[in-house]
Amino acid sequence: MAAPKTIIDLVETFKKNEHIYTNGDLFDEENTKTDFINPFFEALGWDVTNKKHRSPQFKDVVYEKSIKVGNKTKAPDYEFRVGGTPIFFVEAKKPSVNLETDKSPAFQVRRYGWSAKLKLCILTDFEELAVYETTTKPDKKQSASIGRVKYYHYTEYIEKWDEISSIFSKEAVLNGDFDNFADSNSDKKKRGTGEVDDEFLKEMEHWRDLLARNIALRNKDLNEDSLNYAVQITIDRILFCRMAEDRGIEKYGTLLELTKKDNIYQHLMEIFRIADLKYNSGLFCLSADPDRHINRDMVTEHLTIDDGVFKEIFTGLYYPNSPYEFSVISPEILGQVYEQLLGSIIRLTPSHMAKVEVKPEVKKAGGVFYTPQYIVKYIIKNTLGKLLQDKTPNQVSKLKILDPACGSGSFLLVAYQELLNYHLDYYNKLEKPPKNVIYQGKDGEWRLTITEKKRILRNNIYGVDLDFLAVEVTKLSLLLKVLEDQNKDVVEQQQKLFHERVLPDLSNNIKNGNSLASSDILEKDLSDDEIKSINPFDWDDEFESVFENGGFDAIVGNPPYIKMQILRSIYPKSSDYYKEKYETSSKGNYDIYVLFVEKALQLLNDEGKMGYILPHKFFTASYGKPLRKIIAENKNLYKIVHFGDQQVFDNATTYTALLFLNKKINKTFEYDRISDLEQFKNGHYVEEDNILDFSRVTSDEWVFVSGDEEKVFYKLYDMPHKIVDYTTLSVGLQTSADKVYIMPLIEKSEKTSKVESKELKENFIIENDILKPLLKGNEIKRYGYPVNNHVLIYPYAFDSNEIIPFTRKEISQFELCYEYLKLNRDKLLKRSNVDSRNWWIYPYPKNLKVMAKPKILYQVLSQKGSFTLDEKGEFYFVGGGNAGGYAITTKNNNISELKYLLGILNSKLTSFFISKVGSCFRGGYYSFGKHSFEKFPLPSEKLENEELENLVDKMINLNKELSEAIVPRDKKLLKKQIEITDNLINHLVYELYGLTDEEIKIIEESIK
């Protein structure tokens, strides 16, 4: 792509007058922007000055005039966006600045980009243009070249225009080339680097530790709750004040100035009191006020805290010591940090020393997992977004949006932003917008007044959380959102105009309590500590006005995922109560998220919508049946986005879906299966018409297939003959002490074998006659003759087709084995259901008979059918569920029937079917367990087809020959024969099931 005339002219102009432009006294930063930088990026397709008159929240570029606050610039000069989402910053300098070697501007732009979690940022004075990757924590000591991935001199613009536009043009951003370039140059995966939320979390954990230890040491009268509150609210207040400084709302350096004084906490409290009078939020509730619905803070006012604590915290909050640029750290990023911080709690030792511990429910759940922004936005778009369509602000003011487990407030922040965007867009389109709702800033842009933003927040946004600290964080995040795009002049002007304090009191909107337990739980015999931990919440009383109008219009969120066993161990009284109160808790080992779905349906009004991200396990698990029944009977389902094995949460393996319900009777629903998560992240949603009939939604397992695959799948699914009607599916042996009984085989001789004990971590010699060849799941190969690398101690004998456990006399005849087992006696006696007199046998002698029968063996987790034949009943195996292996036997132990089934089960048709009904796992694996096979169809009731059986015989022999082949040429020929035979089997199976060419093509495409 040749450089456009605009760029050629800019380069020529700069070249002619370079001596003027590079003289700092003659040509400043503002002139550089207007004359050179603006037209440069307009040539890249960006609407820099908003000539298309887009609404402020959706314009291409947020352009800041350089406003100095103290010794620093308030914000980046340019923020380039797509659909309101920031993509990269551009920091402008005058041409007299040497960008190639000067460390300071490089640190500044990297600090901006890193703090805002952007991938790349640009530093330019037009004479030079430097591109920095900003996923790495910046350091003021680093040279200007660190993190720089591209550098251009203006004399190169024409020659390299194609390269520049292929990365930074608007078109390049929209088609993904910008992201591809950024990802290829990212340092975030390198050791020692960290994203801003990870690093800031470490910082805040350090502040918490400093404050907790010092407050506990100097204030012996504080209990744990007061200590946790004092530490959290102090951090919240400090952050609010510091972020207000960088937004130009408060004087820059106010907190830093305190480090020069004695008795810092007294001076800090004075700042907080002034903030209380100015802002009115519950964050600074240090004075009695009858207009507020929150009690005055009686904990923090008279604390004693050493000056050294605040000196360490405050000096790390400012340039050049701080890598953080608080003007661009969004409430959403702050929420991610707080979500992790809330996973721990401060405890007091008997000597009143503070220590931080992970909360038990968080520890057992494996950590805290923050919902990615793209998921939150999608849920809000498909709930609140739909409710906003074709409504006036007056109608919108009646909408009530709830997150019943709000955590740090991520869903409520995005919902609030959606409401702000709606109102600003609506008012912008009016010739004469109502007074006091919108104003024009000095930059010419129209913005909502603080009074209007407060009205929207108090009118529409509601949240509840069991953690009172989480409630305070949600309030803080929402208050910071109110102050976005504001500065000191605007705040003070609107205070005078509207005669009210700046921020709203959110105590009537964001509340602390247990969303699942109302006060009737107090009828149980509960201790004070139990009442405190349960913290019952009465919805009708707490949100009376909402329920006078029928309930909430939208309920959104990411409810907790806590299995019943964990819940019972932490909150035994709560779990008993849930069992009584919730229909969804009536079956199996349920997970608490199903209760949150049931509660949401109770809290919605007749027009309301629910959108949650949650595990899709309830679609097929037995514990999900009560919830499936509720949804099916009431026809609540209107949309599912199924992520399959795609991992939405960082650092966690959780298989999730988006579930959208409403209170209307739906005749159809939308079903989207996401195969490419990166595309989904970038906003490329499923566009095909995946509308399914509601008749598919029952209390039975939910198996949904859409698009071209729907017809062929249900043709198979609805066939009358099921494999479970003609065969038996068996799990493996359950020893309850696999490390004792199962051992790697080191060497086998005529009468004994040398084995390795995983339990005792040493080698032993064991008699062969008490050992059985054992297969692990991954040793079971498709059509392969099994080769075992492990053996199993099997203390049983056959007698007239019965399995009889060895007596003491019989087991003692195997002297070597018995001596080994005696070394493990204590461990074996600890197994549940063990017979203490016969402690060497298995407590659960399940499926022992199956082991010696002819059978089909297969891995439970596999990417495709992985079935083989154990014709003589030689091999034993353990496992079940989604681990180890399974066996299939026929009623008559007929080898021909097993071969017939083997051909069908290893076919593409079976892999296609299981990929739709089986649970999915990372890496494209599916569960071929018993649950997946219960609905698998057979083409007829007769388990026979001579042609198929002959082909299966051939496949078994070819695979055996391949395993023994040594010469590469022989291996190549055998592989080709196996491929041809496999294709013949597949097409014969298609024929047996009566599939058309079109249906075959759909299956083949599906499992490529």
User: What would you call the shape?
Assistant: globular
Spatial order of strands in the largest sheet: 15-14-11-16-17-19-18-20-21
Tally of individual helices: 41
Share of helix, binned: 40-55%
Strand content: 15-25%
- What's the story with the biggest beta sheet? 9 strands, mixed
Assembly state (oligomeric) = single chain
Q: What is Rg?
A: 34 Å
Decide which structural class fits the backbone: alpha+beta
Give a count of the beta strands, DSSP E runs of length 2 or more. 37
Low-confidence stretches: 65-71, 188-193
- Rounded to the nearest angstrom, the distance between the terminal CA atoms is 37 Å
Mean pLDDT, to the nearest integer, reads: 89
Domain TaqI-like C-terminal specificity: 773-938
InterPro entries: DNA_methylase_N6_adenine_CS (IPR002052), MethylTrfase_TaqI-like_dom (IPR011639), N4_N6_ade-DNA_methylase (IPR050953), Restrct_endonuc_type1_HsdR_N (IPR007409), SAM-dependent_MTases_sf (IPR029063), TaqI_C (IPR025931)
Domain Type II methyltransferase M.TaqI-like: 459-649
EC number: 2.1.1.72
